[in-house]
Amino acid sequence: MEIDRKTCFDQARRVVVKVGSGVLTADDGLNTDVIASLSRQICHLTRNGLEILLVSSGAMASGQKKIGLDRRPEEIPKRQAMAAVGQAGLILCYENAFACYNRQVAQILLTSDDLSVSRRRYLNARNTLHTLMAWHVVPIINENDTVVVEEIKFGDNDNLSALIALMMNADILVNLTDIDGLYTGDPRTDPEARQIPEVARITRDLEKTASGLPGVLGTGGMLSKIRAARKVTVAGIPMVIANGREEDVLIRLFEGRARGTFFGPAHGRIPNRKSWIGFALKPRGEVIIDQGAARAILEKGKSLLSGGIRDVTGDFGAGSPVHIVDPDGRHLAAGLVNYSATEIRRIMGCQSCQISEKLGHKSYDEVIHRNNMTLLG
Ligand SMILES: Nc1ncnc2c1ncn2[C@@H]1O[C@H](COP(=O)(O)OP(=O)(O)O)[C@@H](O)[C@H]1O
Ligand SMILES: N[C@@H](CCC(=O)OP(=O)(O)O)C(=O)O
């Protein structure tokens, strides 16, 4: 899918901007100058017709400084309390900054369950964001750190911003961090590392160039940004990583004058329900398939039939989300199964016409219908 950086920025109307903790914090707490500058730039761009949703980190980092802790506490309740303190100040700071331009802001705190458990909750969140956009209110989104524990976290805000871009069908995702893009190696340990201006395709080798080790205040490092880029670009949404501390970086990006790493869309846009199946839902298990089924899915646009299934992991019921994995362990697609894990174990390797005989019933020929499947690469 060849579409260049300039065209993507020129044609963008709805934009998700994510700002990392390192950009938003100073030695003594929140960096109010940066927040004032980002708010001014967002107001400038929205006056020129853009719709902008902001995903802002910074609650933990600013709470830590407010409480006066020199490092992040290990204990979960302390971390969550710290985020609660920081989030209040963060939103207040944005509210004051946007008020200078007569713009209202709204605080949206989400947990991963809000987007991944039921389609109804996902649509509720989406409807609220649509309403805010229609009112010209700037949504400021963060993870609800105070109530979530590690197992049910989005992981980090790079992932959350990708899910928001997919959910809102954004035209571009802008990730503002403390460095001007992806480098060929971790610049903290590799003096030869060079900035990469453009990535046409995200390969496994590229993922290896990025460390998952964040800066002192960040969470996912460069690796989580590349994973976010993979999610959105597969669904046809481009992403750019740029330096949030660069003067007027947002305005300059839209004028084609800022540095940054641009990840072009890998395919055309996919429908919202498919991006929900592929990227918001958490897989409950894996269905391992043979090469023939892999080719049928990837090259011929087919559904997954029982004959091509070799193995199943996990314990899930009919209707659950799973990942479809090839013999080399590559995650090819995500989909909703028509049969439970136990049933799939009994019919794998069999022809569809044998399903009734094996199970005593047959509701579907397909184990995963193409309409309920999203390719992941
Ligand atoms: N290949 C790489 N290219 C650029 N930065 C990298 C790379 N590998 C690791 N990093 C580090 O990732 C950091 C950004 O990640 P992180 O601290 O999580 O940012 P944020 O808080 O903005 O999400 C950079 O400061 C940089 O030191
Ligand atoms: N929800 C957390 C942000 C976690 C996070 O992903 O941070 P970052 O890597 O700086 O974007 C907070 O507000 O502190």
UniProtKB/TrEMBL annotation:
Residues engaged in binding substrate: S57, D145, N157
EC nos: 2.7.2.11
GO cellular component: a single term: cytosol
Swiss-Prot/TrEMBL catalytic activity: L-glutamate + ATP = L-glutamyl 5-phosphate + ADP
Main location: cytoplasm
Top-level taxonomic group: Bacteria
Function: Catalyzes the transfer of a phosphate group to glutamate to form L-glutamate 5-phosphate.
Family: Belongs to the glutamate 5-kinase family.
PANTHER family hit by this protein: GLUTAMATE 5-KINASE, ISOPENTENYL PHOSPHATE KINASE
Protein name: Glutamate 5-kinase
